[in-house]
Design goal:
With about 325 residues, the chain is α/β, with parallel strands linked by helices. Helices cover about 55% and strands about 10% of the residues. It starts with 13 loop residues before the first helix and ends with a helix. The protein binds zinc ion. Zinc ion binds near residues 56, 57, 58, 64 and 71.
Length: about 325
């Protein structure tokens, strides 16, 4: 349930607010937006705030009023003219896109503009993306499409070129930490700051880390990987045991890999040239694991290979 439909509910992202404020104020909207930026910084929220403002019966300033019938339905998540499409089992397939495109040719039920939010558009299959192209180029009247993605890189260039891109960023660490403190009273600034750092300034990701208690496991994994590996020592058992713990995270495993990426990127900041190359290998290993999980490879196997790779990258130079 959304409580506040004003853009003040969006933390940071000043540039986003300015760009959208201008378009909403002038009434000149593109057919389609691409909201790109890290997970958990407010892309979907912004799409909903935009929908609220566009269809509000009594907008106040640049915002939806939060009280009219349109705003109330949007807040409770059942507005007939606000459609949200999210990946199912990790992707958005062609059937859903075809069905969506067909439905857009009918006028909106009651609003001036139907807003269609397609989340994580990079998870679309190539066929699905291709079938969206025509609609994206010339959407039927009275529809606004808002696509979200982490970056444009994984998208078809033909998708990107048909949208107006709006870029979101992670928040400055202290600002993110203060936000976490507000959301989780009693957490203490030190832990809030650690979460903000580990999430690269993404409040949404930080809260997920906290909720799923991933930080303790993160510390254990880093300790394991930083321990010196010697030839006469059995280092296989602890790695296999830790891999089993990672695999047990199931659908949270990709999120956890994100944590390890933050750790590696931090090491890169202070790395010597040789060490920098090692960290790059580690990032590549993490990316590989990510892709394997997307292809539904066995989680235990992926975790074992990953941990050995992360460990041996150090062993090679020491
Ligand atoms: Zn309203």
């Amino acid at each position: 349930m959304l409580n506040d439909l004003s853009f003040a509910a969006l933390a940071g992202q000043q540039k986003v607010k300015t760009v959208l404020g201008r378009s909403l104020g002038s009434g000149r909207m593109p057919h389609a937006y691409l909201f790109r930026g890290p997970d958990g910084v407010g892309k979907k929220l912004t799409a909903l705030l935009t929908a609220a403002r566009l269809n509000c019966l009594a907008p106040e300033g640049g915002n939806g009023c939060g009280l009219c019938s349109s705003c109330s339905r949007l807040r409770s998540g059942n507005h007939p003219d606000v459609v949200v499409i999210a990946p199912e089992n990790g992707s958005i397939g062609i059937d859903r896109v075809r069905e969506l495109c067909r439905s857009l040719s009918y006028p909106p039920y009651e609003s001036a503009i139907r807003v269609v939010v397609i989340e994580d558009v990079h998870t679309m299959t190539t066929e699905a993306a291709n079938s969206l192209l025509k609609t994206l180029e010339e959407p039927p009247e009275n529809n606004l499409l808002i696509l979200t993605a982490e970056t444009s890189r994984a998208l078809l260039p033909t998708i990107v070129s048909r949208c107006q891109a709006v870029t979101f960023y992670g928040l400055p660490i202290d600002q993110c930490a203060r936000l976490i403190e507000q959301k989780l009273p009693g957490i203490g600034f030190d832990e809030a700051r650690l979460l903000a750092q580990l999430s690269d300034g993404s409040p949404g990701i930080a809260l997920a880390f906290k909720e799923k208690e991933l930080v303790a496991l993160y510390r254990a994994v880093v300790t394991l990987l930083e321990a010196e590996v010697t030839a006469d020592q059995d280092n296989v058992t602890p790695v296999l045991e830790t891999a089993a713990e990672l695999a047990a995270l199931k659908e949270d495993l990709p999120l956890f890999l994100g944590l390890l990426k933050t750790w590696v990127r931090d090491l890169m900041k202070t790395a010597t040239e040789v060490n920098f190359a090692v960290q790059k290998q580690r990032l590549a290993a993490l990316d590989r694991a990510h892709r394997q999980l997307e292809r539904n490879c066995n989680r235990t196997l992926v975790s074992e290979v990953l941990l050995f790779n992360l460990q041996s990258s150090v062993a090679e130079v020491s």
